Amino acid sequence: MYDGYYDEAHQYMHGGMGGAGSFSETFRCYSVAMMPTRSERPELLYGGKIVMPQSALTKLSALHISWPMLFQLTNPAHERVTHSGVLEFTAEEGRVYVPQWMMQALLLEEGQFVQIKNVELPLGTFVKIQPQSVDFLDITDPKAVLEQALRNFSTLTEGDIITFKYNDKLFDILVMETKPAGKGISIVETDLEVDFAAPLGYQEPAPVARSTPTPSLIGSTTRIAEHTIAEEIGFVPFGGSGQRLSGKIPATSSLNTTSGANGPPIPAALRLPPGKLFFGYPVVPLKQKNTNAEPDAVSATTFTGQGQTLKAARRGGGTGSSGGGSASGSSGPSSSGPK
């Protein structure tokens, strides 16, 4: 079985071990889906770290490479470059396994050669990213989700499209800009400021045209015409007429209750909540007097009872007593007077 092109002659042809303290090797590159012992680990499938052989660890240790170990991956055929960290040293000799998004960034096919060398990258302070789908806007807390996803990355390279998984869905993110400026930055143990660009394909909502506001009523924000229920039942606010105690018909009120915008202000419109019906207020008009009746007939039916007084009997008794005394006085002299 052929496990890859990896020997001393090959190393020398591609630059060998390089200078002192420098690691530079060429391996056959495969995606992590080709690993014999592949497991569904997110840090392996959707991270920014690679799997190298055990011999690479031995050489790196001999060169006293400091941690974290950061590498530059180059595809000489297409002059494509990216950066990564290392996850583990369990790959077969002569092979290196990288995430699928890294294969696409380097324009590599399964089994093609990739050159790997150790590098030192500055600690990043700022990165600007752009989601490649508007589905990214459906994430409730994108900042927290992205922070969790970047824990599986050691480096970020400007121009790369990285991939992470959230809620069983894959999201692609374009690294648009990094600071300090350069091809790559380290994001290990650093405070990184993240700026989000509008997702690819996102369109601003069209502005809603506002209609010209109509004059509103005093004490109300709507017009009576807007209350269709009032129109259906024929409701007119304060549509009755006034009544006077004298029975005379009052003059027409100067307040026009149905006037529009040019007339005087009218009371607030009837407001009904949805699902409510208005059946009108009961109107009980006052009974008007019969102005066509004759005065005698009117007076005949007025005060038809008989009054009573406490002095009535006393007045009657005094009158009878006076009459009797007069008769007695006239008869007295006739009987007792001289003849």
Q: Which residue ranges are poorly predicted, with pLDDT under 50 across at least 5 consecutive positions?
A: 1-20, 216-225, 255-260, 316-339
Mean pLDDT over the residues: 75
- What percent of residues adopt helix (DSSP H or I)? 10-25%
Report the count of strand segments.
Answer: 12
Give the key terms:
rod-shaped, disordered N terminus, UFD1_N1, alpha/beta, disordered C terminus, UFD1_N2, 339 residues, four-stranded mixed sheet
Would you give an account of this structure?
Residues 328-339 have a biased composition (Low complexity). Residues 23-122, 124-199 form the Ubiquitin fusion degradation protein UFD1 N-terminal subdomain domain. Residues 298-339 are annotated as: Disordered. Residues 298-309 have a biased composition (Polar residues). The chain has 339 residues and is an alpha/beta fold. Helices cover 21% and strands 22% of the residues. It has helices at 8-13, 42-45, 54-62, 100-105, 142-149, 228-233, 295-300, 312-336, and strands at 24-31, 49-53, 70-75, 80-91, 95-98, 113-119, 126-131, 155-157, 161-166, 169-179, 184-186, 193-196. The strands form 3 sheets. The protein has a 6-stranded mixed beta sheet with strand order 2-4-3-6-1-5. A 4-stranded mixed beta sheet has the order 9-10-7-12. Strand 3 and strand 4 form a beta hairpin. The termini are far apart.
